[in-house]
Structure formats: C-alpha cells, structure tokens
Write a structure and sequence with these properties.
171 residues; alpha/beta; Rossmann fold; seven-stranded mixed sheet; 7 strands
C-alpha cells in the first residue's frame, strides 16, 4: 500500500523549495514520491527511499530501505513524513505500515533520529512532519536528546489533530 498525499505531505512540501535549492536531498519513506518529485525541481540530486518497493518514483534514484538500513551517503537535506499515529489494533497490518509510528506513534521518529546525524552533511537539515497525536512534547524531547535543535516552521489544525512541520539541524 502506498501512502496517498494528504495534509501532512502538502504541509512539508511548502518548505522544500526553501531548503532544497542546490542541495543533495534524501526523501526517506517516500510513499507516493510527491516530496521527492518536488525536491527534484530545486536540488542538485534526490534519492528516494522506502521499505516498500512499490514506492519507486519514476525518474528518481530509489533505494529500498527500512529507514537508513541501506543508505550509505550523506545529504544536505533529509525529508521525512513518517508514519506517526499511535498504533490502532483495528487497523489492518498493511495500512498501519503507512500510518502507525509504533505503539505510541513516536517510535519511528525516535529510531530515525538515532541515525539521522550519520547521514547529514555538517550543515545538513531535516524537514520532519508529525501530528499532535504523536505527542509534540515527546518528539521535542527526542530531538533534544539526539543533540539536534529544531524550529517550528508551521502548525496546521485539521480535524482531530494539529500537524507540525519542523526544521531540524545539528546543535
């Protein structure tokens, strides 16, 4: 199942132009590839990755990878629109791969940030989008404990939740 673009995708997409110009970009968990295609317009190169082989966007270099498992390069910008919702037992397993970020919703973000620094150039940045259902304070704590700083670029209220788009950089 490929994650179809929704409000979260469009929120982070607004900021790609600001941070991808003339940069080497990784769109991790590319899903439909909408963010990789947007980055390709401005960057000097894009790699899209996803655990799902079906998520291979046309015309963009693709690496099948569970987060950074098969990624061996450094990037100026990493874009991550992760599965971030708390797991729901009623959701089928295939669908939850695109939506659930773990039992509490933040576990995939935590795993991502554990290794993200190894794949950023010294001045590299991360665009991350997540939901209030993930727990903003918990995400803030994870970012801080992984020795990153963040800036809230925008929050957007949608039914049942608030979406946050962060720009994350090294401390």
């Amino acid at each position: 199942m490929i994650y179809e673009p929704a409000e979260d995708s469009f929120l982070v997409m607004k900021y790609i132009r600001d941070y991808a110009v003339d940069k080497k970009v990784l769109d991790i968990g590319t899903g439909s590839g909408i963010l990789a295609r947007e980055a390709k317009k401005y960057s000097r190169g894009v790699v899209a990755s996803d655990i799902n082989e079906e998520c291979r966007p046309k015309g963009i270099r693709f690496i099948r990878s569970d987060l950074f498992e098969n990624i061996h390069e450094r990037f100026d910008l990493i874009i991550f629109n992760p599965p971030y919702l708390p797991a729901d037992e009623r959701e089928d397993a295939e669908s939850s791969l695109s939506t659930a970020g773990g039992k509490n919703g933040y576990e995939i973000i935590e795993k991502f940030l554990e290794n993200a620094g190894d794949h950023l150039t010294p001045e590299g940045k991360i665009l991350l989008v997540f939901s209030s259902l993930t727990g903003r304070k918990k995400v803030d704590d994870i970012v801080y404990h992984r020795e990153f700083d963040f800036k809230l670029l925008e929050s957007k209220k949608i039914p049942f939740e608030v979406l946050y788009c962060y720009l994350i950089s090294r401390r």
